[in-house]
Design goal:
Elements: H1 11-19, H2 26-36, H3 56-88, H4 95-129, E1 137-143, E2 146-151, E3 168-171, E4 173-177, E5 182-187, E6 193-196, E7 204-206, E8 212-216, E9 222-228, E10 240-246, H5 248-259, H6 268-275, E11 305-306, E12 311-312, H7 315-323, H8 325-328, H9 342-353
Parallel strand pairs: 1-5, 4-10
Antiparallel strand pairs: 1-2, 2-3, 5-8, 6-7, 6-9, 9-10, 11-12
């Protein structure tokens, strides 16, 4: 599986970047953005780029984009050429007649033909996006500021105003099989978020009081970045996730593993976790912890990131997140447990790190 370099960083570096972004950092980014718009350098595409088209929808959108860039470039060159000609030439005797003809053909007929052609192209592409799913059904709820994921949920959402329940719960990382049309049901309990995996498909809003459907049909195995694309509150920019595209067998094995209870259900770390009230918000299946406010942590160590795509899942990062939650991720709903002694935090982090 092509594993792109993930964008997660160790705690101090990530924090450093959040707080002290050097002013000069903007220039290379702007240059990169400019470069990315050129088909010649599409190789610069990464795990969070629409230029890495790894799904049927993103491939057709990318192709349409190239067609429009090529068409736009041709029209621009023609118009610039015409303007240069106009300022250099001397007006002909029958200039007015030529001008009128140019306006009719170039200003009315040509745009009408081009826009009509693009409209029909769009209409032709649309049914493809709406083809029914033939893969798993996964519910994803946009929370503040993370992603609640449930595999193989039961029941039709239909016009029901909430996501179907049941299924195997996870968070912030979504596995889907390659070559199948996976149905993602999107909802939110309070504010509007937008679910966006640039490499796979366009954005779809997650709106309280309704269920939106998005069908993802990935064509290339790999790990892709997803983000929240609708301002939803203070930690909006740190509301990311990973999509892991694997073979059908690997997908089935992953969901089966996620359905298992926690790997370690007796540990000093678990005791401290319960004593300090963590279980009021988090579930760890197989233990008394059954809170539902925060992410399910049953297999937290099997995920690539913690804090919704923010930090690599390591014991040290888990400890930092518990100790200085609102410092690592300003705006997070979870309170910081800075008052806990370091060794107690370390014991909890060690146990969480064992929950593969
Ligand atoms: Cu969720 Cu922005």
């Amino acid at each position: 599986m092509p594993d792109f370099p993930t964008e997660t960083r160790s705690f101090p570096k990530a924090l450093h970047r959040t707080i002290h972004r050097p002013a000069g950092a903007r220039i290379p980014r702007a240059v990169a953005a400019l470069a990315a718009t050129s088909p010649l350098v599409a190789a610069c595409a990464g795990p969070q780029s629409t230029f890495t088209a790894a799904g049927t929808e993103s491939e057709s959108v990318l192709f349409l984009f190239y067609v429009m860039v090529a068409g736009g470039t041709a029209i621009w060159l023609f118009v610039i050429g015409l303007s240069l000609y106009a300022v250099r030439t001397t007006p002909a005797k029958d200039g007015a007649r030529i001008g009128v003809r140019l306006i009719i053909w170039g200003g009315c007929v040509f745009p009408t033909v081009v826009l009509t052609a693009l409209l029909f192209w769009g209409l032709k592409e649309m049914p493809g996006y709406r083809r029914p799913a033939d893969g798993p059904r996964i519910a994803v709820s946009g929370e503040r500021f993370w992603w609640r994921v449930a595999y193989d949920v039961e029941g039709e959402p239909g016009i029901v105003k909430s996501l179907p329940t049941g299924g195997v719960e996870s968070a912030n990382e979504i596995w889907i099989p390659v070559g199948r049309r996976t149905e993602i049901l999107l909802g939110s309990p309070d504010v509007i978020h937008s679910f966006w995996v640039p490499a796979l498909a366009g954005k779809t809003d997650m709106i309280p009081g309704r269920v939106n459907r998005l069908v993802l049909e990935p064509t290339v195995e790999g790990v892709y970045n997803g983000v929240c694309a609708e301002f939803c509150g203070s930690a909006h920019a740190q509301m990311a996730f990973r999509v892991v595209v694997v073979s059908e067998d690997a997908y089935a094995a992953h969901v089966a593993a996620q359905a298992e209870p926690a790997a370690v259900v007796a540990s000093p770390g678990l005791d401290r976790f319960i004593e300090n009230g963590c279980a009021a918000c988090h579930t760890v299946r197989g233990t008394p912890a059954d809170g539902s406010v925060g992410p399910d942590l049953t297999h937290v160590a099997s995920r690539r990131t913690i804090g919704a795509g923010l930090l690599e899942t390591t014991e040290a990062n888990l400890a930092d997140f518990i100790r200085a939650t609102d410092h690592v991720k300003p705006g997070v709903e979870m309170p910081s447990f800075g008052a806990l002694p370091d060794d107690e935090v370390a014991v909890i982090a060690r146990w969480l790190g064992e929950l593969r």
